[in-house]
Amino acid sequence: MAISKRNACTLCAVMILGAIHAQTVQPGPESIEAPLIDAHLAAGKNAAGGRDNTPDFYGLVTALCVAPLNAPVRPDAPAPRMDPNRARAYLEPKKAFDDLFWMGTASRSTWALTTSDGIILYDTQSVYDAEDVIVGGLKKLGLDPAQIKYVIVSHAHENEVGGAKLIQERYGAHIVMGAGDWDMVAESVNGFPNGKPKRDIVATDGMKITLGGRTVTIYLMPGHTPGTISGIFQVHDHGKPLTVAYSGGTEFNFVNDVPHFDTYLASERRFAAIAADAGATIIMGNQSQFDNAASKLRMLGDRGAGEVHPMEVGAAAVARYFKIEDECAQAVRLRLLAQRR
Q1: If you write DSSP's letter for every residue of 48-106 in order, what string do you get?
Q2: Considering only CA atoms, which of 121, 99, 97 is closest in space to residue 111?
Q3: How far apart are CA 115 and CA 93, in angstroms?
Q4: In the chain, how many domains are there?
Q5: Do 278 and 232 meet the contact criterion of CB atoms below 8 Å apart?
Q6: Residue pLDDT, tens place only, 2-38
Q7: In what order do the strands lie in the sheet with 282-285?
């Protein structure tokens, strides 16, 4: 059957439009990998479950699986500003264990490990909060801030390193920080309105900070920041020794690309294995919304005889904490990989 020139043109047009349509509806890499991304997110969210179906790590899931950060703070970012209403966020300091004390807010934690020869401090709050939260908090607890001998800074973000200079200069304490984070401090243009701490002890992998017979073992965990460090140490609950895994850095506020997530995941998996090998039954860190320290420590007043310490979540729950980090980091990494193709 003969086809007129006009019909032939129409047929060509239909074929061209059909080809264009076929191209536009073909699934791209992101849509192909969407089910796998969703599966990782679901696995991360499901790992939050805790006792009596009450999530242990709801805040962690929110920060990593629901609304993750996706960029680092610039070295030339504006200096932190003093909030005149900041004291409203301060919470009463608490004795957490026989030999570990907590100071902070609903979102930020500083920990003081007491020994016969002084105090090992973990993280230092913001530059404007350290005086009231740490110095004032230790005094309220009946402890002498001048006994701080070592300060371990888990990572060099403003809310963890802000008070390091004050404690270093006033009390002569040694500051322990990863090499990459000492560099971050040096490179910061506006982040230290009252001056920077002097470069002091550079953390190395497996380093032991020992004071008065107590030891914190440090592990290099780059990812959250270049020099993030985590730690393993013991505390005592009515004389019973318990092992703590201190997670040094958590959120995805670093350069969001595949290599950075590879670094983050490698560190997270390594520390998860270290925590498991150490028999850690407590997970804690610098952000109370992740380990629920602020709320759990306020449960101690109602703790009955024989009841488990609210922060002793158990080895399985510690593993679930790391699973949340792992699964939700994998989801973001896959999305970045798909976008790159």
Answers
A1: T--GGG--S-HHHHIIIIIS----PPPTTPPPPPPPTTGGGGEEEEEEEETTEEEEEES
A2: 121
A3: 18
A4: 1
A5: yes
A6: 444 444 444 444 343 344 333 444 445 566 689 999 9
A7: 208-211, 214-220, 229-237, 240-247, 282-285
Q: Cβ distance 38 to 151 under 8 Å?
A: no
CATH number assigned to the domain comprising residue 280: 3.60.15.10
What span, in angstroms and rounded, lies between the C-alpha atoms of 33 and 261? 17
Residue 241 is assigned to a structural domain of this protein: yes
CA–CA separation, 230 and 219 (whole Å): 5
Domain interval for residue 61: 33-340
Assigned token pair, 205? 């992998």
The reply to whether 227 falls in a domain is yes
Domain assignment present for 179 = yes
What CA–CA distance (Å, rounded) separates 222 from 225? 6
| Contact status, residue 187 vs residue 75, Cβ threshold 8 Å | yes
Q: 148-165: per-residue pLDDT in tens?
A: 999 999 999 999 999 999
> CA nearest 198: which of 227, 160, 222, 169?
169
Q: Is the pTM of this model over 0.70?
A: yes
Question: What DSSP character marks residue 256?
Answer: -
In a domain, 262, yes or no: yes
A 10 A CB-CB count for 105 gives 21
